[in-house]
Design a protein that fits this description.
Number of helices: 8
Structural class: alpha+beta
CATH topology of the largest domain: Phenylalanyl-tRNA Synthetase, Chain B, domain 3
Shape: globular
CATH superfamily of the largest domain: Phenylalanyl-trna Synthetase, Chain B, domain 3
Radius of gyration: 22 Å
CATH architecture of the largest domain: 3-Layer(bba) Sandwich
Number of domains: 2
CATH class of the largest domain: Alpha Beta
Distance between the termini: 32 Å
Strand order of the largest sheet: 1-2-5-4-3
Length: about 260
């Protein structure tokens, strides 16, 4: 079928596969060498020196991270995807303390070291609890690995509002519509911070995000993973899947709008 659609396609695919295999061999060799001065043995797992790890090319650093996880929990490491490894790499590159809980493995980041250890059966890990703060261009799409969501923003006119506004007040609402004038060219996607407040649509006043998440019965282990969409002035626009801020509702019929959509990965 490939040859019929594109004569010579099989040969091109084989050539690409051969080049990719050479690249993988080279990168893996670099990762093995880098591990000698990045990875340290600890009493309950391994440690990664944060500075040297962050200084590596990302492709090499990701392989060092996967190798460290394989040393700690080889069976669980086989189930990890590139998204899991990327969440650890973002924690390293973000230069902040935090924690990522993967499948059977916990990575705890301190100032200078990352502790990688197996999670015992009595511990129930969250998927990801690392701090994150990312920029979503409007229009655009952003994969928030740490939270397990993909969030998109699409520009439109009044016809884009159909079927959206009726659900924005619902807890499970995964689409909202916002006046384009209030959005600007980009928004920030992050997890909650102390002092964050929002006035949900239909609510009598503003609420702390902590109280809102409790009221909406969001599990404690999931609260740090809920994406919070913030405008350029630091105002909370949307707590994904939980509530939209009342001040961002569309009120003028002639307004251009932006439709935000969130999907779980």
């Amino acid at each position: 079928m490939i040859e019929r659609l594109s004569p010579g396609g099989l040969e091109a695919l084989a050539r690409t596969a051969s080049l990719a295999a050479d690249d993988e061999d080279a990168l893996s060799a670099q990762a093995i060498n880098a591990a000698h001065f990045v990875v340290l043995t600890s009493a309950d797992g391994v440690q990664l020196q944060r500075g040297p790890l962050a200084a590596l090319p990302p492709a090499v650093a990701r392989r060092v991270i996967r190798g460290a996880i394989e040393r700690v929990a080889p069976r669980d490491a086989a189930r990890l995807t590139s998204r899991h490894i990327e969440s650890v790499w973002r924690l390293v590159a973000g230069q902040r303390a935090g924690r990522v809980d993967l499948l059977g493995v916990r990575v705890q980041a301190g100032t200078s070291l990352l502790q990688v250890r197996a999670v015992t059966g009595g511990e129930r890990p969250a998927v990801v609890v690392a701090p994150f703060e990312l920029t979503l261009s409007v229009p655009g799409t952003l994969v928030v690995v740490e939270a397990g969501w993909t969030i998109s923003a699409v520009s439109g006119d009044q016809t884009a509002r159909a079927g959206v506004e009726s659900s924005v007040g619902a807890r499970e609402a995964l689409r909202i519509v916002v006046p384009a004038a209030l959005v600007g060219g980009s928004v920030t996607i992050r997890n909650r911070r102390p002092g964050d407040r929002i006035k949900p649509i239909g609510a009598p006043g503003r609420k702390k995000l902590q109280d809102l998440l409790v009221d909406r019965r969001v599990p404690r282990a999931e609260r740090e993973r809920v994406p919070v969409v913030v405008d350029g002035h630091g105002r909370v626009m949307w707590v994904v899947g939980v509530a939209m801020a009342d001040e961002f509702r569309v009120t003028a019929p002639e307004s251009e709008v932006v439709v935000f959509t969130a999907e779980r990965q």
